[in-house]
Amino acid sequence: MGKKKNQKQQPSASKDDLLNTLGDFTSKENWDSFFTIRGSDDSFEWYAEWPQLRDSLLPRIQQHPSPSSLSPSSSLRILVPGCGNSRLSEHLYDAGFGDITNIDFSKVVISGMLRRNVRDRPNMRWRVMDMTQMQFPDDTFNVVLDKGGLDALMEPELGPQLGTKYLSEVKRVLKSRGKFICLTLAESHVLGLLFPKFRFGWNVCLYAIPQKPSTKPDLQTFMVAAEKESSNELLQIISSFDHSSLACNPNQASGLLEALESENQIRGEYLSGSDVLYSLEDLQLGAKGDLQKLSPGRRVLLTLGEQGVSHFCYKAVLLDAKQQSGAFSFHCGVFIVPKTRSHEWLFSSEEGQWQVVESSKAARLIMVLLEASHANADMEDIQKDLSPLVKPLAPADNDKGNQIPFMTASDGIKQRSVVYQGSSSLTGPVVIEDVVYENTDDDVSHSLPFRRLIFERTEGLVQSEALLTRDGLFDKSVYGAEMKKASSSSKSKRRGALKRNNESSSKMKVYHGYLASSYHTAIISGFSLISSYLESVASSGNRVKAVVIGLGAGLLPMFLHGCMQSMQIEAVELDPVMLNLARDYFGFTEDKRMKVHIADGIQFVRDYRNLYAAGNEVLLSSNGSCKLSDAESRSTAIDIIIVDVDSSDSSSGLRCPAADFVEESFLQNVKDTLSEQGLFVINLVSRSPAIKDAVVSRMKEVFSHLFCIQLEGEVNLVLFGLCSESRIEEDCILDAALKLDKLLKSEHPEISQSITDAAKKLKRLK
Fold first, then answer.
1. Do 166 and 288 share a domain, yes or no?
2. Where is the Methyltransferase type domain (predicted)?
């Protein structure tokens, strides 16, 4: 059997005509037609022929080859699936391997091969059979020898479904210590299925079959030999050839070597104990112990489902309760987390997941984290899809075979409509949606709409969230009760299934007097640390100069603009698309106290610092560059710098900000740019304690004093760096917060109180 027509060793013109009968290499009818035209006596060798195969193949088939002898063993039971009319089986039989079974789903070729061999090879067996549904008992054969069969099943446009079924059958019919020998062109999509299927409990080697002499590099045949071990040990794949000396087609060589390197890297991560994803097949082979038994404290990341087996694929976490002595409601349960909540600390962190296990009263909990691919699926359909996938994960004593219960974490959203969907070359895909959250008080009249800005590049990060009111105005009789509710935490929420609705009320507009994001509240509460300085600037008739790096939807600058009349705000945004979206969908406006500069934030601070260090007045132009002016003589140092930008590179371990914003050189430039009483604020989002500690350590080296607010139940850590040598004591923070409250001039006591309450959580990092 074979692959694409242009990948075969070139046959004669008559063979080309025959190949035209094979449009689909997985079609029984096509193969019947092919073999009817060709006949059984004229064998067709897709890949390497016997003279090239013999010396590499015979030693691999031997059950226990001896250095002094490679004589065949007649006791070996060999299966050749997808045999076609190749002479490979005949050569093996003539070499002394007398127990060979050949199968093919083409009745035409099996009949022809039986007639061809009935006299000279009477013990050779020929059966019409589908290699993906073999009719043999388990543990039947010592060797399964495949020459192009897997390649034929793995046509790229058909996906891995047939290949998966076939390899499962191969593993089933092989005896312990048996071997699967696969002759293949070793294309990356084939190896991408083959290698993972033979991980735990298999010893895999890769060989290059010598080619016929040729004037130019041709497609080469490779041999993958996988031996079924008695243990579930995981071994690296060994290749028997010099990677740099492959004389085959360059594209074929690079694809093979990349697949081999990738697989060995994955195996290395398994062996090192890294937190990697296991397949269900790996776990059933014992990769993480006996799944039939509960193992207190066991936590395993895994994937469930695959193409052709289920509608979707899923990422999941298997957790066996740490304490197995208590009373459990059930032995095994499934907890589905919607995409909108899978980021949350409770579901994404190991500590949070153990809390869910404890509250679920399950001896084993399988937590399934939904992703974007599940967005349009009904929860009932997902449960039906998952049911057969999770059944093998239940412990042996699972409530005497009772059905595994499903639980679901609500995404908290009652209504959702998309008002904008587009993309930016800098930010990537962006979605703006209006949502109404579920009301826990069951008071539908108080369910208010919010508008959310979502960055798709960071797993659907909700970058900004704003309250919508009629015409952007606040009617206390309508919204007053709702304002008493705690603000939601926005910059970590992710959206779920999208329901497109472009008929949102045009009268509903963003209201800038409300803080929907708890991290915005935390940022402003940190102003308490310099509230005395802010008060003195305001009382002198001067303006506090603040720079916000990262405009987003413009909600934080607009809130400050409305509440602090003495503040001059300069927003720095790298992406001009963000500015347009802030204007068009979030009501952002500029005036003499609010300016936006389309510029790189790091370069902006560096330029400002250089000019300020020279003792010159700085005016900021609309294109983000710095110009000198002699218009005024007073200092132009910045009083507050806020960094609130997400990272486009998740490999750094930081979601917010980008790694460059926490480098010591940038931090030093920030300090040099700030006034003597200046404040630096940075919203830090990372799940790595080591990264957080490293950032804190750098900031301590630069700033005189460092404070923080850890948002409850979130990964956001808001850090505050003070330039002043004098520091505010923690027992004085409440008084400072009350002083800030008088400066803010908020129209809503609830917002003022939330800022004061957040200030109480300020902790000094010593």
1. no
2. 81-182
